[in-house]
Specification:
This protein has 11 helices and 11 strands. It is of the alpha/beta class. Strands 4-3-5-9-10-11 form a 6-stranded mixed β-sheet, with helices on both faces. It has a 3-stranded antiparallel β-sheet with strand order 6-7-8. A two-stranded parallel ribbon has the order 1-2. The longest helix has 17 residues.
Length: 304
């Protein structure tokens, strides 16, 4: 990524269209080691990751990006949440409550057994923002077997191809392995994000591996705060949410949650803040519990 950053020459954002096995890597999280950047720009020497210099997004192709740009000005006012269909995610309630806080009175919330395939199909066409807090799986050998778990089955990639999501502005796949293309024909970049784009959604947040439930819930709460309340573009909001989670000490996080419980300083329910506070309060106050890229780097933004 060093030559890429040098070529970009301080551009604030860039779109990557990786080919072959590169599509399996979180290129935005590339570690910039000082030993690998001799004779390169000196300001890179003390950096940590590629996304510290540029807001990287991804696209399956230049054509897909072109079509996404044509509809990127859609409104993002009505939310559909698919919430923990099988009841196995302990922190998803806190995550979903934090998301719902940003769409008061303008949401459809399908929870547990309510999140059936028929219910999702009926609700998905009218929503502007689609938030799936559930299990996901990649189609490692065959991309078309990639899927999102619902209460009575799976929403598969091939089924997504048949949807017409002409109202949706953003899909957030807060689940495991939702951004991985198949390995049989990786140059075709067939994945859940590309399927949502083909169905008409210009922007998709997905993950490259099985993510940690708690860190994902905290990062998603921060993402929506930056996007909805502070008005940042969604790709930049994701980048800042990732670096915030990476750099926050235990004391920083405790202070954030405590302020939320006492004064609603950020858009997160008191119950969510209390749950996060209780699970993080015993760590070394100066440690950064989510500094490792495992906790934040899986997520990437595809499209516009």
């Amino acid at each position: 990524m060093i030559p890429v950053l040098n070529t970009l020459n301080d551009a604030p954002q860039a779109v990557l269209i990786p080919s072959g096995p590169l599509g399996l890597l979180p290129l935005h999280a590339a570690i910039l080691l000082s030993s690998a950047i001799e004779n390169q720009k000196s300001e890179f020497e003390n950096s940590k990751h590629a996304l510290d210099f540029c807001a990287f997004t991804y696209a399956p192709s230049a054509q897909a990006l072109y079509h996404a740009r044509l509809v990127a000005d859609r409104p993002a006012n009505f939310l559909l949440v698919v919430d923990n269909p099988d009841g196995s995610l302990p922190f998803t309630e806190s995550e979903v409550q934090a998301v719902l806080e940003h769409f008061p009175g303008k949401s459809t919330h399908l929870w547990h057994e309510q999140a059936s395939k028929d219910a999702v199909r009926q609700a998905i066409g009218a929503a502007h923002v689609l938030h799936f807090s559930t299990h996901g799986a990649a189609g490692w050998s065959d991309a078309e077997t990639a899927r999102l778990k619902l209460a009575d089955g799976n929403l598969t990639l091939s089924e997504l191809f048949d949807l017409h999501l002409g109202n949706a502005r953003l899909a957030v796949l807060s689940a495991c392995e939702t951004g991985i293309p198949g390995t049989k024909l990786p140059d075709e970049v067939v994945s859940l994000p590309s399927a949502f784009m083909q169905a008409g959604v210009p922007g998709v947040v997905g993950s490259l591996w099985s993510v940690d439930d708690m860190s994902t819930a905290i990062m998603m709460a921060r993402f929506y705060d930056l996007w909805r309340d502070e008005g940042l573009p969604a790709p930049e909001a994701l980048r800042q949410a990732q670096t915030w989670l990476r750099d926050s000490t235990t004391e920083d996080l405790k202070r954030t949650f405590k302020n939320t419980m006492e004064s609603a300083a950020v858009r997160m329910s008191g119950e969510s803040a209390k749950a996060f506070y209780a699970h993080i309060g015993w760590e070394d106050p100066d440690s950064r519990p989510f500094a490792h890229s495992f906790y934040w780097a899986a997520f990437s933004f595809t499209g516009m």
